[in-house]
Amino acid sequence: MTALVRHRLFWPAAVLLLLLAANVAFTPGFLSIEMKDGHLYGSLIDIFRFGAPLILVAIGMTLVIATGGIDLSVGSVVAISGALACLHISGLPDQNDVGGVLTAVGLALGLALVLGAWNGFLVAGIGIQPIIATLIIMVAGRGLAQLITDGQIVTVNSASYKLIGGGYWLTLPFSILIVLAVLALTAFLTRRLALGMLVESIGGNATASRLAGIRSRGLTVAVYAFCALCAGIAGLMISSNVSSADGNNAGLWIELDAILAVVIGGTSLMGGRFSLGGTVLGALVIQTLTTTIYSIGIPPETTLLFKALVVTVVCLVQSPAFREKVFQRRGRRRPAAPQATDDEKVEVPA
Amino acid sequence: MAPPAPILQMSGICKEFPGVKALSGVDFRLLPGEVHALMGENGAGKSTLIKVLTGVYDIDGGRITLNGQDVVFAGPLQAQQAGISTVYQEVNLCANLSVAENIFIGREPRRLGRIQWKRMRRRAAELLAGLDLHIDVSAPLSSYSLAVQQMVAIARAVDISARVLILDEPTSSLDSGEVEQLFRVMRRLKAEGIAILFVSHFLDQIYEISDRMTILRNGSLVGEYLTSELGQVELVGKMIGRELADLEKLEDRPPARTSEPLVQTEALGRSGAIEPFTLTVHKGEVVGLAGLLGSGRTEIARLLFGADHASTGALRIDGEPVTLRTPRLAMNRGVAFCSENRRAEGLIPDLTVRENIVLALQAMRGWHRPIPRRTQDELVDKYVAALNIRPADPEQLVRNLSGGNQQKVLLARWLILEPRLLILDEPTRGIDVGAKAEIQRLVAELSDGGMAVLFVSAELEEVLRLSHKVAVLRDRKLVAELPNDDGLTTGVIMETIASGGRA
């Protein structure tokens, strides 16, 4: 039992289960999943589907935070990527042309990669503080997205593009499959290959990493580029789901939710150890919370306040110092040090 | 003439940290109008004594009297109000504010709640003029050199009512002209009757400026001496803890190596860190670097590893000229470096013992070629056993290990690379006797196996026991290169340090 409680992911998982239980109490049949027209339907599927962009952005953010940095520009990258893809598709003679849609996707993701590499260059090459370096694209990127869409909302009518965010494949929403693929790839790169250890060591002690021969500059640029790529995919999903690109509102504040998801998942904002599983749980907690707010009928004007309250409680419950004080558990449990630093910073995104 | 009554008297000061007795029964006194040097090797208790005096730490035993009255300071602010001001090595002023603002920050001259800027600038200029410093006080502090900033800090400290001024290594980042300027200011303050406590690792400076010195060793008082009555050799002996007469020749001295050169430097240097030096390390040779703290030992090590860039001179490895721009390039050439600062420059505390050990090898291979887990486990198990790392649990976080075991983890990281030159900077500092002996034995074995070792240590016995050749440093300069033959004793090394190789 204690081993279970001590597990890094115990508290985020517990909170998620609690939220799900609350939903079950309010909405009977919440957990049921049914098959309609060869597609799976149900609230749980919806949570995954609507949470997919956030999970993607949070995965990229996890690696950036593990290097000791932060990326505020992901929301803008979401908007830019969607805008560029939609613009290209809207100019196609046949909007359903798969080749044309693939070109649009390629262009959008290529631009996202360039933007991410620029962030990484500012951080690792020039040595600007990550929060400032990525603030540039956070602000300027919204302008860029508007420039691409000419200040309008670009709408498309493409069945092939719709698949990314709104389609189904093998009975599952396609977006869920994309998330699973990116998650698997990230897990492979970081845990099967040595990327994870090198990233953790850069975040854990940058000076020592340099003296151990790690080329931290290139790695850092790659991590920011990867983060922007994840945001770019999320941007495609969001715009594809509504078949339009809105330079102003697509991905607005998603960077804060992503940072929050990373923190709830137990990765320290100081950098070092990270947990991809924790981040996915964290993103699911946030998405479930949003769903819960709608399903139990919280008045719309108080949703943000309610969300903030729940997030505060989640972060307090995760803090070993807080638990020790409040619950007065018998015997001293050694708090995991990285988690101890999380809770101080958590209020920012909330 | 009887000496004036001491303004500050500390007697029987004891201070204990968990597991370490930092100060035991130290007496110290400071007379008005003198410059008093506090001497001792690294870890002798100098900074603890200063922190106890200024209220940063509580004392566990003993008493402090200021002007004949018992005092207990709860913090540096109280000490300052009582007239004890400290200026640290790193100037802690606000570089973005003007000189005048820095001097009067928190106590600006006001009228009706408004700051009187003109009056503040005039008083600041007067104050600095009193120190022979004529600068524009409305310019930001950052526009002046470190020496001037140091003096602004002193001006501020003195103006706040200092009767006792503590200067903790104020000269370590100054050039010789700036040091002269600082000394002029110190002499002026001394003439005004202010007592100055001066800490520096530069012997020449101590002899130039100080009137009296107190020597500490391992947290105990060695004695108080008049600078004019204590020679440099005796001083070094008292700091290190060996009288010249006691020094015995060591028994099993390693035989000299006559193999081909591995690393050669030709007037390699870095301005502000180490003057150009020429040194050759042969294959399988252990070269010891001896010298006091701050004499440039670490700087040499960092240059050879590419951690710093050389500003002059050339470096050859295997006879080939190389430029080491990054540690990685040095590693490709077979050079490894164990930093003296394990925590800041060596270990990644959040990673496990296993990960810390394989880190450098993994960095060499790149992220896309992971070391198979089985190979990792074999390597780690081998070195955990060979170096006797405890606890022998590779999945333990390295932060939970003791200092000696952390040191061995760091050693293991470099040993699995099988380097040709291993640079060890203070590998035995702060670790227990057993681990120390194990590391020394290992160095001897590695050198027998053909690995060249550059061994940096403050302990001369250790350097002598292991080295084939000893390079002696003083004041950031390589002053002598001594073969470790029958004639070489710690006494000879100490004399070389003290005389600066002139003898």
TrEMBL record, chain A:
This protein's name: Sugar ABC transporter permease
Gene Ontology, cellular component aspect: plasma membrane
Keyword entries, A-Z: Cell membrane, Membrane, Transmembrane, Transmembrane helix
InterPro entries: ABC_transp_permease
Ranges that cross the membrane: 40-65, 72-92, 98-118, 130-148, 168-189, 219-238, 250-269, 276-298, 304-322
Places the protein is found: Cell membrane
GO-annotated molecular function: transmembrane transporter activity
Pfam families: BPD_transp_2
Main location: membrane
Organism the protein comes from: Planomonospora parontospora
Superkingdom of the organism of origin: Bacteria
Lipid bilayer topology: Multi-pass membrane protein
Automatic annotation (TrEMBL), chain B:
Membrane topology of this protein: Peripheral membrane protein
Cellular-component GO terms for this entry: plasma membrane
Residue ranges the record marks as coiled coil: none
GO molecular function: ATP binding; ATP hydrolysis activity
UniProt entry keywords in alphabetical sequence: ATP-binding, Cell membrane, Membrane, Nucleotide-binding, Repeat, Translocase, Transport
Domain ABC transporter: 8-243, 257-500
Localisation: Cell membrane
Matches recorded under InterPro entries: AAA+_ATPase, ABC_carbohydrate_import_ATPase, ABC_transporter-like_ATP-bd, ABC_transporter-like_CS, P-loop_NTPase
Main location: membrane
UniProt key word Ubl conjugation: no
The protein, known as: Sugar ABC transporter ATP-binding protein
Species, as recorded: Planomonospora parontospora
